[in-house]
Amino acid sequence: MDLAGLIETVHHDVMFPPSAPRPGVLMGFYGDDFTGSTDALEAVATAGLPALLFLAPPTPADLARHPGLAVVGIAGTSRSRSPDWMDTHLPAAFSALRGLGVRVCHYKTCSTFDSAPRVGSIGRAAEIGRAVFGGAALVAVGVPRHQRFVVFSNLFAAGSFSGAEEIFRIDRHPTMSRHPVTPMDEADLRRHLARQTGQRILGFDFRRMLRPDAAAALEAEIAAGAELVVLDGFDEATLAAAGALIAGRSERAPTFVAGSSGVEYALLPTLTAQAADRLRPPPRPAGPAERIVVCCGSCSPVTEKQIAWAEAHGFAMIAADTPEIIARRDDPTLPEALAAPVIAALGEHRGVVLHSARGGADPRIAPTRAALAAAGLAASDSAGVLGTVMGRTLRAVVARTGLRRLILAGGDSSSHTVAAMGVTALEMAAPLLPGAPLCRVHSADAALQGLELALKGGQVGGPDCFGVSLGGVS
After folding, report:
1. Of all helices (H) and strands (E), which one includes residue 431?
2. Which terminal Cβ of the chain has fewer Cβ within 10 Å, N or C?
3. pLDDT > 90: percent of the chain
């Protein structure tokens, strides 16, 4: 397929000196799922950068309603999508960001980089990004504050974002090496990407990144034919070096980058200097909520422990009948029926957990896969089917109860949940959990407007994170 034929290239003629404040949107990102998108949003918002996360490419009218934005994000679902889906949807999203005049376009991936040739292909996304933006693409995955480390292009990760935990090579990680859809069985990101794309991939390791001639050496490699360049990142020095290399390339031409929120953290010195005249005070910590609903679509053992903690501390537990949801997915009465027990539980409990699985050994998993097969669907369709129904259910809960705080756990499923609820945009409201801020909802639906929403990946948070989300952080 000729990707160039999919792209309407937007040319940019204005170049800015690196130290000067700049008008307009400086950076854009597309998140391959919604939890990862809010992670990137948190990185820039806590530094005072005016930022907003849209659920669809923003129009000029959208930006006019939110003047002064320095960073614009698009929350996507490509992590659970096929390369054909990417060919159809990503060119328009990337072209929309380029049309805003951004100097850096970031394809935001999970910090565990889980992806596969046929599902969530980061290699395919990079091909499309390069077709839109031109030049080589950089890959930056390490984000030390989330305990994700890249050394000689090999990825290592802790069991979660929180706590002093053992660090695993990603292909030996207790969760991600066994991910049900995109297992990470290769730690070398060059080899991992080579399964997904025919582009020429180069590792540019910390020894070269920290040299005085790093920028010139990188440009020489790109001139020699490197198309995807994987950067190391495992401490503040390598994060700063990655940021300098990305910023330097973006001064010459708009630059496409794939990777974790480490990209945002690496670029903060550049972005805050360029937006110095419009920085805002960082969001203050969240206070307690009157009530909370937690919707869990993650099979992660981290989330399993969090559900168990919540049950032991007085949260009501509601187990979704996932095979029935799949069988009745098109039944318009289903969301109200699913909402009824949640609404009833909120009358007696401050916290309610609605879950579609309690870990990888949940007895619903096999019947769920059988129900998907009976419906002519693949196992990878579960996030879309369950997430969509859950989104409609939660919309009914919010409308009937006036609930003002909602937590979604599960990177793949929550993307579909938020889209089905009717959310149009998110802004960071307060820090809450590492990598999962509390966001304020923008929506044409009055019941949703101003709702506090946190999107938590399966690896995020300590055992008590649902209690923290209910009580706020002091």
Report:
1. strand 425-433
2. C
3. 80
